[in-house]
Known about the structure:
Blueprint: E1 6-16, E2 21-26, E3 36-39, E4 42-52, E5 55-60, H1 66-71, E6 76-80, H2 94-97, E7 101-104, E8 107-117, E9 122-127, E10 133-137, H3 138-141, E11 142-145, E12 148-151
Parallel strand pairs: 7-12
Antiparallel strand pairs: 1-2, 1-6, 2-5, 3-4, 4-5, 7-8, 8-9, 9-10, 11-12
Amino acid sequence: MTDDRTxxxxxxxxxxxxxxxxxxxxxxxxxxxxPSLSGGGRTFxxxxxxxxxxxxxxxxxxxxxxxxxxxxxxxxxxxPRSALPPLAEGEYYHIDLIGLPCLADGKPIGTAVMxxxxxxxxxxxxxxxxGKRFMVPVAKAVTIEPDRLLIDPEFVE
Length: 157
């Protein structure tokens, strides 16, 4: 079965120059590995990408002037999950954890809804059945299984 959930790799944050280049906030180390990205209901063909201050500057075949580039500000660019490279043992993609049930001491406590990276490591946000949320450090408090996340009870609020 193919996993076609979209994984966001970059966000267009503005135009660069007058020829249609865009400034990107990168969420991936290697955008060049993905020659075709989708976003905003469109497909974009990557012609070039280079490092820039606080991100990158890219040229897409479909964006030919500054007005078109500015109109795409805020567009998330991604690929299907199935397009990502396979992972080594112990590695995970954030999207693979979102939506998984979370248990502590064998009892359901909520669902994984978001993962943030604040510099010291990934932090998992869990939504309880009552809608309240809390966060736990992945490295210290989470055991990742294929179909669920086991949370150290010491970190459960």
